[in-house]
Structures are given as structure tokens and as C-alpha cells.
Amino acid sequence: MAETEMMIHAYDVASIKSFIFDSQDFKTIVGASQLVKSFDKHVAELVAMVEGTEVVYTGGGTGLFLVRDQSAQEGLIAAIEKASEILLGHRVVQASIEPKEPVLDLPDWFRLDSVKTCGAFARSFSRLAIELNRKKADFPLHEEEIPSDSMCPSCGKRSKVSGSDRCNVCKEKAQKGEAFFRESSEGKDSLKYTFDLQRIATQRSGGKDSENDKMIGVIYGDGNSLGDIYKSFEDYKDYARFSRELESTIASAVRNALQEGQKGEVHTAAPILGGDDLMLLVPQSRVIPVLQTLKRELGNCSFCKTPITFSFGVAILPVTLPLGFIFSISEELLKSAKKERVKAIQQKRPDAKDHFLSFRYLKGHTFEAKKTKTFPHFQASFDRGMSFQELEKILALESRVANSGFSKNIIQKLWRNLEMDPCTAAINLFYFLHRTKGVDDQWSKDFLEGVYMSEHDWKTICPSKKEIQTRIGTFSELYDLCSGKEV
Fold first, then answer.
1. What element of type H or E holds 138?
2. Strand, coil or helix: what is 228?
3. CA-atom Rg of the chain in angstroms
4. Domain 7-141 falls under CATH 3.30.70.330
5. Assigned CATH class of 188-364
6. How far, in Å, CA of 476 to CA of 369, rounded?
7. Which helix or strand (DSSP H or E) is residue 63 part of?
8. Which single residue of 18, 95, 100, 481 could bond 131 by disulfide (Cβ 3.0 to 4.6 Å)?
């Protein structure tokens, strides 16, 4: 930025996920996401007409611009405020800074090495982010008290419009959602976006032929450690190029993942697809294939030879669950995946540079399988994150016995076996597995090391107070999904 005296200006849609997910109606959720996209696009169009400004990037509810002088800045602010009408009164914060030193008003003795090594643009961008966050924090939250008979049933936050069963905001969002799906269905593309989740959901294996037994797959992804890339930027052009390439790569990866290997129309939904975030709703049978394609496609995403990885929260849930539960469960799983990735980095594990995920297959509204089950010497954490390498290892084990005599009865025995001490559990495991058709010594060894006694040197096992992490719960859920044999 040394060659210019321009100001840097930015906007950010405050509480964007609240704007998108404040309704329990899927149609309005998709419509809200489309409104954010329309807002970003409209801002870019209006600002392009303001003399003395340059659009660096708009997308995902954020925007960055270069401003030549005060009059140009006033025109820019007015253009963003005008475009924000699209968001139906939702707040958009704006901030400007001059790209100059010092980075932060800190004395020299307080300067951190990580700050010193940041690129010039990255240091300015950090200051700008702080200003935006301050403005968000300064805005007090206020919720109107609404009589229950006047409350919008979709969001529960605003009053219904006279003569309608919804508030004006939910009504506008729903109309936008309907228009989006109508437009996507009119084309010849085999990929069909729908707000009818029953069209995406499929019957659970072993379930009764009813809506209560229909399942839907949710994949919620987010990029890892993008700040490490941002802080290397010396110029706004690097930021613009990276942001556009990242968004384009994700969009292409999603499209290829949804369509690959499919014949005829593919019904899906993508309530989030912007910036480095993505959320997809797919049939349960498509969850693993879509994940594997996403891994391959996103592996091509890099900047200055720095590979970009993603973390995913992956859940298969009853389609009749409230949408709020579906999204909150997938969000919690995403956090578990990111937590395990940080652990892998701290431990300097070889899989630390891989994509990570946390997986659950929840077959009923009661969620009979708890997050964590603790035995005397074993801990089964169902939602504990894992790398894709670990996932593929478990899937390979599952695949070898999918059509063999490996049954739910054996898995249940191995589960009950965790009540014993590690030595006895290991011996019993070999006994049960060697009686099973299609299981050899190598498979038994892989299963013991990769699933049954993960993160433990089973060759020297002895009773201890330290619990052994086991993947038997995750294996059983993946076995249910891939083999269609309920455990």
C-alpha cells in the first residue's frame, strides 16, 4: 500500500448467521442467504459508479474498498447504506482506516514477532477488523416485546403483518427463497436446489415406511487457519485475488461433489455457500461420496503454494427434527473437528495438514447414543474429531466386512467388552474377530490399532488410570450408514 494514499474502507453484515437462521422455516433460511448474496452484488454495482473508489472484494456479507478522498468516502458510505435496504433493516457496520504505521498503538517493547512478520496489507486489515468489531459491540441488542397472539410463528422475534401469518421480514425472505428455487429448477442443469427436505431425505435402513424414519445428511464446512494466509499479504490485490479464487474453488468443488457419479436429477440444498463457509443438505447415502469428492476438489485450493484445508461437521439426522437443532448439531460437530485439528498440530502428528471432520449418525429423536461413554479404562467419544486419513482407514475396515459375517451382534460384544481391563479386552477382541468370516490377522491388527484402542500402544497395555480413546462408537455408526446393518 506504500504507493498510494488511499483509505481502506470495509463493511460487515452484523450477526450474519442470526440473519440467515433466525427462522425455523427452511424456505426463509435459503431466502435470507440469497438476500446476502444480492446485497453484496448490489454494493459492488453501486460502488463501481462512485468516482474515486475501487472495489477490492464483496462476498459472504463483507466488502473491502479503496477510497481516494473524503468526498469519495461519503459516496461509498451512502451506496452501502442504500444497498443495505435489501437486508430488510438488518444492521451493516462500516469502518475506515488509513494504511499507515504503527499497526496498533503499542510501544516498541510490546511489539510481537507475529505482528512484525505480517505483510503491510495484513497489518492494516487487522486494524480494520478491530474497528468493525468495536462498532458491532457498541450496538446494543434490543428485542421487542410482542404479545404471543401477534408473534410471527416463523421467527418468534417480530410481529406478524396485518392480514398475514408472518412478519414482513420472514415473508420477504420466503419469497426470495421461492424465487431462487424456481429459477434453479427452470434450467437444464441436473442439480436441483429445493426447500422441500422430504425430497432430499431417504428412508433409514431398518426403519418403518414413514416420515419419522427418513434421514437427511448435513455437511457444514469451514476453512482452516486462513489468517495465516491473510497475514502474508503485502497488497490489497493479493487479498482480492485470494478471496475470489477461494470462493470460486469452493463453489466448483460443491457442484462437482454433488453431481459426481449421479444420474438424473440431484436434489439438494445449500443454505450457506459464501466466503469460506459451506453447508449442504444431501441424501444420507451421498454423505461419504460428497465428502470424498470435496476432499479431492478442495485439495487443489492453495495460495502461494500454501495448501488450504477445511474442517467439517457431518451429521445424519431425522428430517423431522426442527431446523434449529439440525444446524446447531452440525455447528457443534464442526467445532469438534477444529479442536482435534489443533490437537494434531500441537502434537506434530503427520495428519495435521489433512482435512478434519466430526461425524454422527443419530437415528432417533431421543439420540440414544450419547456424545461420550466412559468405561473403567476406555472412553468412547462419538463426536470427537478426526482427520480424513483416519476416516478413510475406518471406512476401509468397514468395507472389508460389509458382506461378511461381521454382524451387529459382534459389534455389541466388542462394545460390552470395554467394561473389562485393556488386556482382557484385547484378547477377547481377537477371539471374537477370528470367529468371523472375512477377518484375518492383518484386519484384526488394523482394527485394534485404528478403532478399538486408538492412541494407545496396545502391545504394552496394562491397567492404568488413563483412559484409552476408542473409535468403536464411530465405527458402529459408519457401519450402520455404509452397510445398512443397524447396530
1. helix 120-138
2. helix
3. 26
4. yes
5. alpha beta
6. 11
7. strand 62-67
8. 95
- Cβ–Cβ < 8 Å for 432, 414: yes
Give CA–CA dist 431/412, Å, rounded.
14
Q: How far is CA 187 from the centre of its chain?
A: 28
Cα-based angle 389, 394, 396 (whole degrees, multiple of 5): 95
Q: What is the DSSP code (8-state) at residue 452?
A: I
C-alpha to C-alpha distance for 178 and 196, rounded to whole angstroms: 11
Per-residue pLDDT of the chain (487 residues; tens, 9 = 90+): 344 467 899 999 988 888 988 887 888 988 998 999 999 999 999 999 999 999 999 988 999 999 988 889 999 999 999 999 999 989 999 999 887 654 455 555 545 555 556 777 777 777 788 888 888 877 665 566 778 788 898 888 888 888 888 899 999 999 998 888 777 666 657 778 887 888 888 877 655 555 567 899 999 999 887 877 777 777 888 888 888 888 888 888 998 898 888 877 788 888 887 778 889 999 998 999 999 999 988 877 766 667 788 999 999 999 888 888 888 899 999 999 999 999 999 999 999 989 999 999 987 644 444 577 888 888 888 888 999 999 999 998 888 776 666 777 888 888 899 999 888 888 888 888 888 777 788 888 888 888 888 776 666 666 555 678 899 989 988 888 887 655 4
DSSP type of residue 373: E
Q: Enumerate the H helices of 48-101 as residue ranges.
A: 70-83
This prediction's pTM: 0.85
The sign one gets for the Cα dihedral 181, 185, 187, 191 is positive
User: For the chain, what is the largest distance between any 2 Cα atoms, rounded to a whole number of angstroms?
Assistant: 81
**Residues whose CB falls within 8 Å of the CB of residue 415, separated by 6 or more in sequence, listed in order:** 472, 473, 476
The pair phi, psi for residue 311, each rounded to 5°, is: -115, 145
The angle at the Cα of 370, spanning 364 to 374, to the nearest 5 degrees, equals 155
Torsion of CA 83, 85, 88, 93, to 10 degrees: 60
Domain boundaries, the chain: 7-141, 188-364, 391-483
Report the C-alpha gap between 251 and 259 in whole angstroms.
13
